[in-house]
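Q: I'm building a small set of examples for a reading group on sequence design. Run inverse folding on the following structure and report the sequence directly after it, with nothing in between.
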């Protein structure tokens, strides 16, 4: 029995035979594929983008893969971790052994599962998936098992300063073809803020915008009832609490939102208080999404295996890339939880494609966050996925299907004056910090 007959006898799907044959044709008799160099490309094509990319080169002429070590808040630390610590560890290693690289990189710095170690790990992981796809002549989604859906449904970001402008914004996204719309009123925590100087303040000290959770728990259900009245019941509605609430307020909000039938409510608790999900679960049917800030498997595993959430919200780059995302998706499938990978804000086109390739192939997919990039990014990163009618479309090029134009990236050097992260310091009436 030859190789082809053997594969067929195992009832392997046709795409797998094609992939195996293609890969064999490309690799049999070839020397082992080694990592020969890694180039770091750090760029800020917009003020809120602090992107650190890699190009991982191999001993096969012209064959390289791209990856992202995106951490907006610690971008320079990610760059240094790559240049000073990880790249020397990777050079000379086998580029074909993706899982082995993931495991060895995971323990390389001994302490593990931190944001920096995870994004650095995601960078090499995605570059190796990209390389394997290019070598096989197949898009990464084929290597992951092939498509179970034709494109990736996205949720859009609606916003407004008051109820009416919020309704207009939701309606606009619906008109643009989106079935899922997340709504915030005036930024995270919006609807719960007491204006600067107003209300009962301490005699000295904090006088700025102050978050009040009772106000928030009152206003947000009224806002979503207004959306149902104005836009109707067809649109699937999402809302991000961004961890602002104490556990009892979180439960009250979830119960009050039942009547407007949310698609999900996100991060209703901070990661430190996730054990309260069992109380929320027992008392309300409002679907819960959680996990944007998760970096460690022990954070998501209990929530998934105890069926305490409906959607896992990790950012693929922040958990270590495609290799880890697939494992989470497989765990979710066993327990009836769905994925909703976090891809908004300052995220980059490579990370968006990591989620895309995984999403196309997993039965446990729920939804992905929308992120539309400006013209200068589309020019700098040919192959960036595109949004049409509420769906994300990559291309069918081998690998991830994206590249980095280094000449354009060099025009936008990584900013070293990024101090605009004070949005994370939300404060209450007495001046104390509220979880952002
Ligand atoms: Mg969020």
């Amino acid at each position: 029995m030859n190789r082809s007959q053997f594969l067929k006898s195992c009832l392997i799907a046709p795409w797998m035979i094609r992939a195996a044959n293609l890969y064999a044709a490309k690799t049999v008799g070839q020397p082992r594929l080694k990592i020969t160099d890694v180039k770091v490309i750090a760029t800020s094509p917009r003020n809120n983008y602090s992107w650190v990319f890699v190009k991982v080169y191999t001993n096969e002429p012209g064959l390289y893969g791209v990856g992202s070590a995106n951490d907006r808040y610690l971008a320079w630390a990610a760059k240094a971790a790559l240049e000073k610590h990880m790249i020397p560890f990777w050079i000379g290693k086998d580029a074909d052994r993706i899982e082995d690289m993931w495991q060895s990189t995971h323990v390389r710095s001994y302490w593990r599962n931190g944001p920096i170690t995870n994004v650095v790990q995601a960078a090499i992981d995605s570059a190796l998936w990209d390389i394997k796809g290019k070598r096989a002549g197949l898009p990464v989604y084929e290597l992951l098992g092939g498509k179970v859906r034709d494109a990736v449904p996205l949720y859009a970001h609606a916003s407004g300063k008051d109820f009416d402008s919020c309704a207009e914004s939701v309606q606009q996204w619906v008109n643009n073809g989106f079935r899922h719309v997340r709504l915030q009123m005036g930024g995270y925590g919006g609807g719960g803020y007491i204006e600067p100087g107003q209300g009962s303040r301490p005699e000295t000290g904090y006088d700025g915008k102050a978050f009040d959770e009772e106000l928030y728990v009152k206003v947000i259900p009224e806002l979503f009832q207004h959306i149902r009245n104005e836009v109707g019941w067809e649109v699937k509605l999402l809302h991000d609490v961004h961890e602002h609430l104490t556990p009892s307020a979180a439960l009250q909000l979830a119960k009050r939102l039942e009547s407007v039938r949310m698609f999900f409510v996100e991060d209703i608790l901070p990661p430190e208080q996730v054990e309260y999900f069992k109380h929320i679960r027992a008392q309300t049917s409002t679907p819960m999404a959680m996990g944007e800030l998760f970096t460690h498997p022990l954070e998501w595993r209990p929530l998934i295996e105890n069926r305490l959430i409906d959607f896992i919200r990790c950012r693929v780059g922040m958990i270590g890339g495609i290799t880890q995302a697939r494992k989470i998706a497989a765990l979710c499938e066993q327990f009836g939880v769905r994925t909703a990978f976090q891809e908004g804000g300052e995220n980059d086109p490579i990370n968006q494609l990591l989620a895309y390739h995984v999403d196309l192939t997993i039965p446990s997919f729920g939804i992905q966050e929308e992120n539309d990039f400006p013209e200068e990014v589309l020019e700098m990163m040919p192959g960036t996925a595109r949004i049409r009618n509420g769906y994300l479309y990559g291309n069918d090029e081998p690998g991830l299907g994206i590249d980095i134009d280094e000449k354009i990236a060099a025009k936008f050097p990584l900013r070293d004056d990024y101090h605009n992260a004070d949005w994370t310091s939300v404060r209450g009436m007495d001046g104390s910090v509220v979880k952002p």
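The pocket of magnesium ion is lined by residues 240, 242, 266-267, 292 (CB under 6 Å).
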